[in-house]
Write a structure and sequence with these properties.
- The protein is mostly helical and about 110 residues long.
- About 45% of the residues lie in helices and about 5% in strands.
- It has a two-stranded antiparallel sheet.
- A hairpin with a 6-residue loop joins strand 1 and strand 2.
Length: about 110
Protein backbone atom coordinates (compact mmCIF):
# COMPACT_ATOMS: atom_id res chain seq x y z
CA UNK A 1 0.00 0.00 0.00
CA UNK A 2 1.45 3.34 -1.02
CA UNK A 3 0.65 6.52 0.72
CA UNK A 4 0.83 9.69 -1.23
CA UNK A 5 2.44 12.41 0.76
CA UNK A 6 1.33 15.84 -0.20
CA UNK A 7 4.30 18.13 -0.13
CA UNK A 8 3.47 21.71 0.54
CA UNK A 9 5.80 24.43 -0.53
CA UNK A 10 6.85 26.68 2.28
CA UNK A 11 5.65 30.28 2.12
CA UNK A 12 7.46 32.50 4.65
CA UNK A 13 4.52 34.78 5.44
CA UNK A 14 6.15 36.59 8.36
CA UNK A 15 9.33 37.31 6.39
CA UNK A 16 7.23 38.55 3.45
CA UNK A 17 5.39 40.99 5.69
CA UNK A 18 8.54 42.04 7.59
CA UNK A 19 10.44 42.82 4.39
CA UNK A 20 7.42 44.69 3.00
CA UNK A 21 7.25 46.86 6.16
CA UNK A 22 11.01 47.43 6.12
CA UNK A 23 11.38 48.36 2.44
CA UNK A 24 8.06 50.18 1.95
CA UNK A 25 7.15 51.71 5.34
CA UNK A 26 5.00 54.37 3.65
CA UNK A 27 2.58 51.74 2.34
CA UNK A 28 -0.31 50.54 4.49
CA UNK A 29 0.79 48.30 7.35
CA UNK A 30 -0.35 44.70 7.34
CA UNK A 31 -2.22 44.09 10.57
CA UNK A 32 -3.79 40.72 9.80
CA UNK A 33 -2.99 37.84 7.49
CA UNK A 34 -6.41 36.42 6.72
CA UNK A 35 -6.79 33.07 5.00
CA UNK A 36 -7.79 34.84 1.77
CA UNK A 37 -4.73 37.10 1.93
CA UNK A 38 -2.45 34.13 2.65
CA UNK A 39 -3.87 32.31 -0.36
CA UNK A 40 -3.16 35.28 -2.66
CA UNK A 41 0.36 35.66 -1.29
CA UNK A 42 1.09 31.92 -1.51
CA UNK A 43 -0.16 31.66 -5.10
CA UNK A 44 1.85 34.72 -6.18
CA UNK A 45 4.98 33.60 -4.31
CA UNK A 46 5.09 30.18 -5.94
CA UNK A 47 3.86 31.20 -9.40
CA UNK A 48 6.70 33.70 -9.75
CA UNK A 49 9.23 31.56 -7.86
CA UNK A 50 10.07 34.09 -5.19
CA UNK A 51 12.70 33.76 -2.52
CA UNK A 52 13.15 36.22 0.33
CA UNK A 53 16.07 37.79 -1.53
CA UNK A 54 14.11 38.12 -4.75
CA UNK A 55 11.11 39.55 -2.84
CA UNK A 56 13.36 42.19 -1.26
CA UNK A 57 14.77 43.15 -4.69
CA UNK A 58 11.26 43.39 -6.16
CA UNK A 59 10.16 45.74 -3.36
CA UNK A 60 13.39 47.75 -3.53
CA UNK A 61 12.82 48.28 -7.25
CA UNK A 62 9.30 49.53 -6.52
CA UNK A 63 10.61 51.81 -3.74
CA UNK A 64 13.14 53.38 -6.12
CA UNK A 65 11.33 53.39 -9.47
CA UNK A 66 7.60 53.25 -8.80
CA UNK A 67 7.13 56.00 -6.20
CA UNK A 68 3.60 56.63 -7.46
CA UNK A 69 2.55 53.41 -5.74
CA UNK A 70 3.67 54.83 -2.38
CA UNK A 71 1.78 58.13 -2.55
CA UNK A 72 -1.71 59.40 -3.08
CA UNK A 73 -1.56 61.63 -6.16
CA UNK A 74 -4.07 63.52 -8.27
CA UNK A 75 -4.93 61.90 -11.57
CA UNK A 76 -4.38 63.76 -14.80
CA UNK A 77 -8.10 64.46 -15.07
CA UNK A 78 -7.77 66.66 -11.98
CA UNK A 79 -11.00 65.31 -10.54
CA UNK A 80 -9.86 62.17 -8.79
CA UNK A 81 -6.72 60.78 -7.25
CA UNK A 82 -4.61 57.63 -7.21
CA UNK A 83 -4.59 55.96 -3.85
CA UNK A 84 -1.33 54.55 -2.59
CA UNK A 85 -1.03 50.84 -3.10
CA UNK A 86 -0.56 48.08 -0.52
CA UNK A 87 0.66 44.51 -0.24
CA UNK A 88 -2.53 43.18 -1.81
CA UNK A 89 -1.74 45.06 -5.03
CA UNK A 90 1.95 44.11 -5.02
CA UNK A 91 1.11 40.40 -5.06
CA UNK A 92 -0.92 40.57 -8.27
CA UNK A 93 0.12 39.44 -11.72
CA UNK A 94 -0.83 42.89 -13.02
CA UNK A 95 1.66 44.55 -10.68
CA UNK A 96 4.64 42.27 -11.23
CA UNK A 97 4.22 42.35 -15.01
CA UNK A 98 3.89 46.15 -14.97
CA UNK A 99 7.09 46.37 -12.92
CA UNK A 100 8.99 43.86 -15.07
CA UNK A 101 7.92 45.56 -18.30
CA UNK A 102 8.72 49.05 -17.03
CA UNK A 103 5.12 50.23 -17.45
CA UNK A 104 4.85 51.11 -13.77
CA UNK A 105 8.02 53.18 -13.55
CA UNK A 106 7.56 56.82 -12.59
CA UNK A 107 7.32 59.14 -15.56
Amino acid sequence: EQQQVKQTKHTPFQAIVDIYHEVLPEMAAIRELTDARKTKIRNFWHKFKFTEERWRKYLEYIAENCRWMCESRPRRDGESSWKRKNLDFLVTERCILGVKEGRFDDE
